[in-house]
Design brief:
The protein is globular. The protein contains nine helices and no strands. About 25% of the residues are buried. It is mainly α. Helix 3 runs antiparallel to helix 7. It has helices spanning about 1-5, 10-30, 45-75, 80-100, 105-115, 115-130, 135-155, 165-195, 210-225.
């Protein structure tokens, strides 16, 4: 069972992401009802936003990229002990953030910050070896999200007061950029394959103007906002 779970990136991360949503929703209801307390060193709403972005969304992104990048690049997938190490880093961050007042805030922040750079480092060699320029955006977006996470935590630690709202908003746009980039690639492929299985002979359309401007438009809107 453990070997099967760690054979593909989507298996542990989609599972743990789903469990995180369910458990954190229950915890958030407990906080709103006064049965539990948020971290003393982070505002409750920022704690909630942080876990949705850097907990759940990061798990979903990791599960997808660790599965898709090998298919895109033809390189071996990360599995076994290497995948288990990434899972352990993500899980450690979530466990510390679920019990934040039992640990030094700096330790919680350091462990939480480690995941996105580790994920970027894990997929970067395959992307570099494939020499496909359009794939290079993924490690860049991951590192940008890691930078935003660092700003959120720096605000919570009192090092850079006031930067968290902007960093959280930027993180939402970072996830939106990732979804835009991924959706533009996999939705046409999945749609074509489904139509072919249904017996309809179709050819995917070449990327048009809308495809080319979608990601720049998202990034431009983020900068204007």
């Amino acid at each position: 069972m453990p070997s099967a779970l760690l054979d593909r990136g989507f298996r542990p991360f989609f599972l743990l992401g789903s469990l995180h949503v369910a458990s954190f929703t229950a915890l958030w209801v407990a906080v709103l009802s006064g049965w539990a307390a948020p971290p003393r060193w982070m505002a409750a709403t920022r704690w909630h936003a942080h876990e949705m972005l850097f907990g759940f969304a990061s798990a979903a992104i990791a599960g997808f990229l660790l599965t898709a990048v090998p298919a895109w690049t033809g390189r071996p997938a990360i599995r076994g002990a290497r995948l288990g190490a990434l899972v352990a880093i993500w899980l450690a961050g979530r466990l510390l953030f679920a019990t934040p007042d039992f640990w030094p805030p700096l330790l919680v922040a350091a462990v939480d910050l480690a995941f996105l750079p580790a994920l970027a480092l894990a997929i970067a060699p395959s992307i570099a070896a494939a020499r496909v320029a359009r794939h290079a955006a993924f490690p860049v977006i991951l590192l940008a999200l890691a930078g935003a996470n660092a700003l959120v935590l720096a605000d919570a630690l009192g090092w850079l007061p006031g930067v968290a709202p902007t960093a959280l908003r930027a993180s939402v746009y970072g996830v939106a950029a990732m979804v835009t980039l991924v959706g533009g690639r996999i939705v046409p492929v999945f749609t074509t394959n489904a139509l072919l299985r249904a017996g309809q002979a179709v050819e995917p359309l070449a990327p048009g103007l809308a495809d080319r401007v979608a990601l720049p438009a998202v990034l431009a809107f983020a900068l204007l906002d």
